[in-house]
Amino acid sequence: IVCRLNNQYIVQYLNKHWDSIQDKINWYHLCLNPNSIPLLEKHWDTIQDKIHWNMLCENPNAILLIEKYFL
Asked: CA-to-CA distance for 63 and 68, rounded, in angstroms?
């Protein structure tokens, strides 16, 4: 599933279908999506190993998330 750019609708879709769609997520692009931060934080405990830290660091909305879990 393409999760890139500022697609807020894909994030809403992922929230709705999370249990059945996790294995189809493009994590690289999701980490870049500024709208994905609430979704990533909500599922943080189960997705940490899928996070692309370089891409997450490029996401301007991820600063608080990075500070909370990484620093």
From this structure: 9
DSSP of the chain: ----TT-HHHHHHHHHTHHHHGGG--HHHHHH-GGGHHHHHHTHHHHGGG--HHHHHH-GGGHHHHHHHT-
Q: Which residues contact 67 (CB under 8 A, 6 or more apart)?
A: none
Query: By the 8 A CB rule, do 24 and 32 touch?
Result: no
Q: Which two tokens stand for residue 60?
A: 């301007």
User: What's the whole-number mean pLDDT along residues 1-15?
Assistant: 77
pTM: 0.85
Spatial distance between the Cα atoms of 65 and 24, rounded to a whole number of angstroms = 23
pLDDT at 11: 84
